[in-house]
Amino acid sequence: MKLVVGLGNPGKEYEKTRHNMGFMVLDALADDLSLDFSKNDFKGTYARLKHPDLDEDVIFLKPMTFMNLSGDSVSALASYYRIDPLDIIVVYDEMALEPGRIRLRKSGSSGGHKGMEDIIRKLGRSDIKRLRVGIGEPEHNPIDFVLGVPKGEEEKKIHEGIDQAKKAIKDALLRGFDHAMNAYNH
């Protein structure tokens, strides 16, 4: 079984903010794959996919713990379903990438992202696959920036990044993470 985690914050007030890129990518996948995020457990909401082209099920999880405690939800679900951390992909926002760019990596530090940091801490390892969606660097306060809503050209670029991220996740599930890295990291 595989697990795709989209990071974000629950609640209407955070819905379209830069910090909710993970939720937005999973919502885009839900539209394409007819996912139903109606299961509520493991401190999150999730959908399970039985895809005819995959030899195993995929769970798509949105932790409802708020960003900084995302590891609680991920570790609980992964433990219950016995999902190997090497079969997890985490999707989240990245300030070090310009809006609309995506980057896939197999391991590494959290890069200062509190949600990813908590997942690494709770799973006890840093070799967790991740897909980062660029939101750009803030001019001033990073907290206000990530909790802000992009507008105009920035919003358009971010939506292009969400579309690319959606395609990269599908590619990673069907053809492997290495294939997706080669196809989308440019």
Question: Could you please describe the fold and organization of this structure?
Answer:
- By secondary structure, the protein is α/β, with parallel strands linked by helices.
- The chain has a single domain, classed as Peptidyl-tRNA hydrolase (Rossmann fold, 3-Layer(aba) Sandwich).
- Helix content is 38%, strand content 20%.
- It has helices at residues 21-33, 70-80, 114-123, 142-146, 152-175, 177-184, and strands at 2-6, 39-41, 44-49, 58-63, 88-94, 102-105, 129-134.
- Strands 2-3-4-1-5-7-6 form a seven-stranded mixed beta sheet, sandwiched between helices.
- The two termini are 29 Å apart.
Distance between the termini: 29 Å
The stretches of 5 or more residues where confidence is low (pLDDT under 50) are: none
Count every beta strand, where a strand is a DSSP E run of 2 or more residues: 7
Structure classification: alpha/beta
Oligomeric state: single chain
Mean of all residue-level pLDDT scores: 95
Reported for the largest beta sheet, the result is: 7 strands, mixed
Under CATH at level 1, the class stands as Alpha Beta
Total domain modules = 1
Percent of residues in helices: 25-40%
Q: Per CATH, which architecture?
A: 3-Layer(aba) Sandwich
Count of DSSP helices?
6
Order of helices and strands: EHEEEHEEHEHHH
The strand order across the widest sheet is 2-3-4-1-5-7-6
